[in-house]
């Protein structure tokens, strides 16, 4: 059995693919795994670091919406489809699992041409063009949100890293707070804006931090490695405000926190829901509005708050986030609601769907 994963470009495509790879290997250490990628994607670093084979094919960017440029896609895809076919033939692929991104569409078209079963996983509430096309040919379609528009899709959540999927926040909280130098007993706000959307979150939290500290809240703030690190005025006896460039142990950060202020990327929403961490979601005001759609289901379930980027102000934080952080009962209820909505077993569910697709392919 050899599975080819097609999910290059961004961490949102690569991490679920690698989580599936890990789950496949846990079940059967002999399974062959090859990840397709392009030389410009994060997969050139992330895939080899995790010990999996990476096969590079040419990148063909796809328009996000139907435009006249779509007419040129088949011609530009021809070479990259051929390169994907060669990988499938060389590995004797049993199945292609696509997660969207530049490499997914050529992988789907190559698999269709060669008769290799296809599984599609869509992480976003609003599917991209590659997965819309791939879902037409797929044996099985998995999605991360319960109200996906993809045909015959099954809601399973997003495959997560084991350090996140198995995290018991309560059991690790004391250790996590000690690791960051936080007070073991104070309500704790975690802040991170990701790679694209950190600036507005950074500006807001830096402005409101003294007021939060005065109210008894401590803050762990990942500002982003390319952003200037603020110099907090941590007065003696005040709860700490700890800005750091980057958090390489998000499991510990989640365990240390009582609530998070963050963007609403599909992976972020899935991880916070799975570990039961309430959040104030601030969707990026760009793209096709998918981040708002990502966050809406867990917010509707009671596991978070939702605020437009333009409405994120120090006053909003004081009026909406602070009352949650200082109310243990409300924190508990929101945490429980997030956890009930979240899915920790998407990786194992997707392994089952891979086997199902392979069996269906053999049956014709």
UniProtKB/TrEMBL annotation:
Residues 3-142 form the Glycosyltransferase family 28 N-terminal domain. It is an enzyme of class 2 (transferase). Pfam families: Glyco_tran_28_C, Glyco_transf_28. It is found in: Cell membrane. SUPFAM superfamilies: UDP-Glycosyltransferase/glycogen phosphorylase. GO terms for molecular function: glycosyltransferase activity. Residues 188-348 form the Glycosyl transferase family 28 C-terminal domain. Its main location: membrane. InterPro entries: GlcNAc_MurG (IPR006009), Glyco_trans_28_C (IPR007235), GlycoTrans_28_N (IPR004276). It catalyses: di-trans,octa-cis-undecaprenyl diphospho-N-acetyl-alpha-D-muramoyl-L-alanyl-D-glutamyl-meso-2,6-diaminopimeloyl-D-alanyl-D-alanine + UDP-N-acetyl-alpha-D-glucosamine = di-trans,octa-cis-undecaprenyl diphospho-[N-acetyl-alpha-D-glucosaminyl-(1->4)]-N-acetyl-alpha-D-muramoyl-L-alanyl-D-glutamyl-meso-2,6-diaminopimeloyl-D-alanyl-D-alanine + UDP + H(+). Keywords: Cell cycle, Cell division, Cell membrane, Cell shape, Cell wall biogenesis/degradation, Glycosyltransferase, Membrane, Peptidoglycan synthesis, Transferase. Transmembrane segments: none annotated. Pathway: Cell wall biogenesis; peptidoglycan biosynthesis. It is a peripheral membrane protein. It comes from the Bacteria. Belongs to the glycosyltransferase 28 family. MurG subfamily. PANTHER family: GLYCOSYLTRANSFERASE, UDP-N-ACETYLGLUCOSAMINE--N-ACETYLMURAMYL-(PENTAPEPTIDE) PYROPHOSPHORYL-UNDECAPRENOL N-ACETYLGLUCOSAMINE TRANSFERASE 1. HAMAP family: MurG. This is UDP-N-acetylglucosamine--N-acetylmuramyl-(pentapeptide) pyrophosphoryl-undecaprenol N-acetylglucosamine transferase. The lineage of its organism: Bacteria, Bacillati, Actinomycetota, Actinomycetes, Kitasatosporales.
């Amino acid at each position: 059995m050899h599975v080819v994963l097609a999910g290059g470009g961004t961490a949102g495509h690569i991490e679920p693919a690698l989580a599936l790879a890990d789950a496949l290997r846990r079940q059967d250490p002999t399974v062959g795994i090859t990840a397709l990628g392009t030389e410009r994607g994060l997969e050139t670093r992330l895939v080899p670091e995790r010990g999996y084979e990476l096969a590079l094919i040419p990148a063909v960017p796809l328009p996000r919406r139907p435009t006249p440029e779509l007419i040129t896609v088949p011609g530009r895809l021809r070479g990259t489809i051929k390169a994907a076919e060669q990988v499938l033939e060389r590995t004797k692929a049993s199945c292609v699992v696509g997660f969207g991104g530049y490499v997914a569409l050529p992988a789907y078209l190559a698999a269709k041409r060669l008769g290799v079963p296809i599984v599609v996983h869509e992480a976003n509430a609003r599917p991209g063009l590659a997965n819309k096309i791939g879902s037409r040919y797929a044996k099985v379609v998995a999605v991360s949100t319960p109200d996906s528009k993809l045909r015959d899709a099954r809601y399973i959540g997003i495959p997560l890293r084991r350090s996140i999927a198995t995290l018991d926040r309560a059991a690790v909280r004391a250790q996590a707070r000690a690791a960051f130098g936080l007070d073991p007993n104070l309500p704790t706000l975690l802040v991170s804006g990701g790679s694209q959307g950190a600036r507005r979150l950074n500006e807001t939290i830096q402005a409101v931090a003294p007021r939060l500290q005065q109210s008894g809240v401590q803050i762990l703030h990942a500002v982003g490695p390319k952003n200037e690190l603020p110099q907090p005025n941590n007065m003696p006896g005040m709860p700490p405000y700890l800005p750091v460039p980057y958090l390489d142990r998000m499991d510990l950060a989640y365990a240390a926190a009582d609530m998070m202020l963050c963007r609403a990327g599909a992976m972020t929403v899935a991880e916070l829901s799975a570990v039961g961490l309430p959040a104030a979601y601030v969707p990026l005001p760009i793209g096709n509005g998918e981040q708002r759609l990502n966050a809406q289901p867990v917010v509707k379930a009671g596991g978070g708050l939702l605020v437009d980027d333009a409405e994120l102000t120090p006053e909003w934080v004081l009026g909406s986030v602070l009352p949650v952080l200082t109310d243990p009962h409300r924190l508990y209820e929101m945490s429980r609601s997030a956890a009930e909505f979240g899915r920790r077993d998407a990786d194992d569910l997707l392994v089952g769907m891979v086997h199902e697709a392979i069996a269906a392919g053999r049956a014709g």
